[in-house]
Amino acid sequence: MTLLRALSVSLSALRVSPCGVFWSVPADTLVEYRRVSKHYGAHRAVNAVSFGIRRGEFFSLLGPSGCGKTTTLRLLAGLETPDADGGEILLDGRPIQALPPWERPLAMVFQSYALFPHLTVAQNVAFGLEQRKRPAAEIAERVARALALVRLDPGTYGRRLPGQLSGGQRQRVALARALVVEPVILLLDEPLGALDLQLRKEMQLELRQLNRDLGITFLYVTHDQEEALTLSDRIAVMDHAQVAQIGSPAEIYESPRTEFVARFVGEVNVLDGALVGRPGARIAVRPEWMDLFAPGAVPAGEVSLPGTVRQVVYLGETLHVHVAGPGGQDLTVALRNEGQTTNPIPWRAGDAVAVAWRPEDLQLLEEG
Amino acid sequence: MTERPGRLLAPGLAWLALFFAAPLLMVAAYSVMPAAPFGGVARGFTLAAYARLADPLYAGIVWRTLWLATVTTLVSLLLGYPVAYVIARSGRWRRWLLLLVVLPFWTSFLVRTYAMIFLLRDTGLVNTLLLKLGLIQAPLTLLYTPGAVLAGLVYGYLPFAVLPIYAALEKLDPTLLEAATTLGAPPRTAFFRVTLPLSMPGVVAAALLVFIPSLGSFLTPDLLGGAKTSLLGNLIQAQFTTARDWPFGSAASLLLLLGTFAALVWHLRRRDAGPDPLAP
């Protein structure tokens, strides 16, 4: 009986595990989600999610709002509890569920910053160190260092209240408050969401640099695909409480596995495979990998579809030519802008064209 | 057409002038006039009423009033804070729980205070229950004690403590507690470092809302307290009724007003100053 149970357990492990019969944690894996689930009543927020985060890497959870990415992050922080049979999360190979949230060796940056409004900047940053009962002299020294790390002068800003700071400065304080405790992993929940574009770009570069310089693992939640591509070593794209695809930014962008991933990360033309001799399949081609030719002038070896130009949209760096393809399907072709006053593209609305791409730039999509 | 918002104030101002400022000025005037033998005041100027306030007998009443108001405030805060805390975290039930808090206001304060008498007297509910349970052999003297007055005042003013604390706690961003947690603070530490300091404005408002009416209370000590628990409010009431010493009653009233005013000034100064940004 016991033997049977053991056998069925290992068999179910075989079914669910992508890597083999036994769960094997690679030596460089810091965090391991194993079929982690979380329900709110009948609503499935996180559904049997499994993935690993490597030591020191910048790992992003990317997806639309409501896809479960924030809940996935909060489960690691202990701010949410997984379902009773909702799998487990390992930190350094040990189940983290045994630790209450305040004893987990991690830190978190919130979208709303969550700075304590009644404490000064220095007191905010010192908070975590005080909980860890560090001596006062060490706290003062580390607080000053952490503020300097996020480029805030401790002398100028240390005694200010959060209410006296700009949004960008508050974000830096929140970052310093989290980094100062030297967490094993830093959790960031849409930390740049409230900043304007210019500041966001600046902070993105700084976050990337901090991740590299400090060697701290970052788990980053965002709905901004460009941000995820810019920052991450690896991205897990989430959809409907599950991980749709995990990979490097290039893998995610260039080889999306599903139509959801293809559409969510960047722009894409999704075509019926029958159009190019692959009946029953769905294929994806990025607009910038397509080119336009006069009918009959398509270079040898390229796949092409006939169409009519609908309109040309000027975007600055690129031009988007919208083409009505076979059956009226809308195809978007991105052309590099080489100067419309000096070197204009020859296509106008109503022109008959051929939309062409190299066969290797075509991506077959899975269902889902 | 020019808007003149001043006009909108006129009815209210007239009302206040007639029913607040004028009586107040009259009280102030009475307090420095000699008493007429059968009530009212006679012509003349004297500070005799104020001199009498310094009499140890009356100073004792003032002291007892301050003390009882302070204890009432502290007990109300200690009882009210947990209630407000639970209501603020009770999700969709909070509206119903708030309704329960203000439910006593649907009945007259006088009726409710009489109900306390039925609870506390020798043959009252509390003593009967304790006797039946065999916990006591003879009825306890509960009524006409300072304890009864304290119980009555706390009962009467507890909602005034709960509501402002609730308002402060309800505004508190729960993310702040999550931040404290992820920074290593167990729930108790998070409460004392984050929740309590951030709800202090509500606590201070609650303290004032309980302390000020407690200072001037006369109904509760009159009904529930004995002769020994006479408070400033009872003293004032007696001067205008049985004792027929209007100047002394007026002087005592102004003293009470001064105490209330001092509490309010303290509160406003505290609020205007805000947290000191340069505090270490």
Task: Give a description of the structure.
The complex is a heterodimer of chains A (368) and B (280). Chain A contains 10 helices and 18 strands. By secondary structure, chain A is of the alpha+beta class. In chain A, the strands form 4 sheets. Chain A has a 6-stranded mixed beta sheet with strand order 6-7-8-3-9-10, sandwiched between helices. In chain A, strands 13-17-14-15-16 form a 5-stranded antiparallel beta sheet, with no helix packed on it. A 4-stranded antiparallel beta sheet of chain A has the order 2-1-4-5, covered by helices on one side. In chain A, α3 crosses α4 (136-149). Chain B has 280 residues and is mainly alpha-helical. In chain B, α1 (5-30) packs across α12 and α11 packs antiparallel against α12 (246-273). Helices cover 72% and strands 0% of the residues of chain B. Chain B is globular. Mean pLDDT of chain B is 89; it is low at 276-280. The A-B interface holds A 77-79, 100-104, 106-108, 110, 112, 114-118, 120, 127-128, 131-132, 159-161, 164, 177-178, 181, 187 and B 173, 175-176, 178-187, 189, 193-194, 197-198, 275, 277-280.
Output the keywords.
heterodimer; A: 368 residues; alpha+beta; six-stranded mixed sheet; five-stranded antiparallel sheet; 10 helices; 18 strands; elongated; B: 280 residues; mainly alpha; 12 helices; 0% strand; disordered C terminus
